[in-house]
Amino acid sequence: MTKLRKWILFALAPLWRCKWLLLVCLLITVGYGAGTFLTVANASVTVYTPASLGTFISYTEIHYGWPLEYEVRQVDSSLPLHRWKLWANVQSFSGLKLAANALVALLTSLLITYATAWRRARWGWQFQLKELVALVALIAAVLAYAAHLRSVDLADQRYLADLQKRGWVAKRIHIPWQRRPFRDLGLISENAAHQYWLTWENRSQGAFIDQALQFEPKSADVNQLLAEQARDPRRLSSRFIAATVNDPQLHGSGVEAFLNWTPSVSYLTLRGDQIPGSSLAQIGQHCPHVKSLGIDMPLVQGPDLRGLESLHHLESLLIFNCDPDAGPEIVRLAERLPQLELIYLSGAVYAELTPAEIATLRSRRGLLLTQ
């Protein structure tokens, strides 16, 4: 007991000597980890409310926490935002992520406190030249990284301005955890901090929805536009992690050009009435790191799905349209991709699955089958 007591006193002595530093560090790290938030205006899909006969309501999402987001609130965009009402309009909450943020804050505070106590015991408050050089190098590295992010964003915005003139739309979707402190400190702008979703929408959803969403059909040939962008030496940065092309005129050559233009996307959705099944093999070849794939391709047959077996990072497969008899190949694909967590099937495809195929898919551990 005497040795244990000595070890405890030895471990806690630096904390007691620097108790005010520890309290300040805990106040800053816990407050930032739990209280920092990200506001995403009009984040959710507009919702039609039959009771109000045609009213569309958009919602603003507020994400809390760093480095992990432990809570998401959803608030009507037309109402005032009360960001500190953490208990109101909660969409999702994770106590484990909140505890993980608190643990990160505690470990960071302890590390700073112990390092300060150890240094103070050896050299007092005098600074050595090598310490000043290391501090200057660290600050320079942080500022250089922030300048790099601003430079990349400037190039992206210039290129994006040309794309928007042709009908493309870019949406801000997420800020990576490592960029959030840079944004909060004002070192980079909102645009430079965000990751983006690039979309081309040219499919009517009906007169009422088109009017509500202010949809205007595009006259340009999407395949020709994609071929031109593939030949252009300019490229969007890796911040554009998601891409969607939804056009009835999209065919195989357009898909090939699009994959050559944006090979680094992690979330990909392709919807076209003229896309051949061979395009799936091209997706497997050009986008091996894709995590989520959505396909709306009526011409795709069951065997064509084998072209996706090389997507070893695929977590979500969304099949909006394909050959209704593709059930056996969907089961085969689920067996070949053990990391697959979600398979969404349209009603027409799901209805053609046999009970045995449904049972096989539902029995696979870690896989959710939905329609």
Could you describe the 3D structure shown?
The chain crosses the membrane at residues 20-41, 98-117, 129-148. Keywords: Membrane, Transmembrane, Transmembrane helix. The structure is a single chain. The protein is α/β, with parallel strands linked by helices and 371 residues long. 45% of the residues lie in helices and 19% in strands. It has two domains: 2-126, no CATH class; 145-370, Leucine-rich repeat, LRR (right-handed beta-alpha superhelix). The strands form three sheets. The chain has an eight-stranded mixed beta sheet. Strands 1-4-5-6 form a four-stranded antiparallel beta sheet. Strands 2-3 form a two-stranded antiparallel sheet. Strand 10, helix 10 (279-286) and strand 11 (292-296) form a beta-alpha-beta unit. Helix 8 packs parallel to helix 9 (252-261). It is globular.
Summed up:
With 371 residues, this protein is an alpha/beta fold.
Topology, element by element:
Layout: H1 2-17, H2 19-35, E1 37-40, E2 47-49, E3 55-57, E4 59-64, E5 71-76, E6 90-93, H3 95-123, H4 129-165, E7 169-174, H5 180-184, H6 190-193, E8 195-201, H7 207-212, H8 222-231, E9 240-246, H9 252-261, E10 267-271, H10 279-286, E11 292-296, E12 316-321, H11 327-336, E13 342-345, H12 347-351, H13 355-363, E14 368-370
Helix pairs in contact: 2-3, 8-9, 9-10
